[in-house]
Design a protein that fits this description.
Helices cover 40% and strands 17% of the residues. By secondary structure, it is an alpha/beta fold.
């Protein structure tokens, strides 16, 4: 790996305090290889996207979010699936970060996606929807491996992911994201 540490920004797509997707990111922090840091960015403070607000000068919370993305080498997004798609707060955050398109910090940013749900399909449709959104932002979305966690309630104890096979999948995803990111470094 390069001499410079690699900074990954983890974004949980759920606002819920005990979110399984936040738990996936906490596991990723524990499993990150040496020289890699994974910070979490909470979406609670972002207002709903409004072009009037943008034209008046984006709120400080939006500017802070965009700076956090710009300063990260890569993104790791953990999304639940709501109605076969991504949650509103996550889509809203991407809408803010994507504006204006020519200077968006999402452009050419390496991104990996994972997700957890209590259902049977492991966020496959939500992740597909998120991939489509990130295609429009010109983000470099890691194609594999897939981390589609189903029946999440049985895999966590007190907010911590305890299922070893799932932890190994996350480790593989983080390692793949690191290799993917290094391919795009200047």
């Amino acid at each position: 790996m390069a001499d410079e540490p690699l900074r990954i920004l983890g974004i949980p797509g759920s606002l819920r305090r005990q979110s399984y997707n936040r738990g996936l990111l906490l596991a990723a922090q524990e499993l990150a290889p040496p020289g890699v840091t994974i910070g979490l960015y909470e979406l609670h403070d972002l207002p709903l996207y409004n072009q009037d607000l943008e034209e008046a000068g984006p709120p400080e919370s939006v500017l802070h979010f965009k700076r956090a993305i710009a300063e990260a080498d890569a993104l790791l997004i953990a999304t639940p699936e709501y109605n076969w798609s991504v949650p509103g707060p996550l889509k809203n955050a991407i809408d803010w970060a994507s504006r204006p398109p020519a200077t968006s910090p999402l452009r050419r940013k390496p991104v990996a996606i994972m997700g957890a749900t209590t259902g049977l399909f492991g966020t496959v449709r939500g992740q597909l929807a998120l991939r489509q959104v990130l295609l429009s932002t010109e983000s470099y979305v890691l194609p594999k491996p897939d981390v589609l966690v189903r029946d999440a309630a049985s895999l966590f104890r007190e907010g911590r992911l305890v299922d070893e096979p799932t932890r190994q999948m996350i480790r593989q995803l983080v390692e793949a994201l690191v290799a993917w990111t290094l391919r795009f470094r200047d």
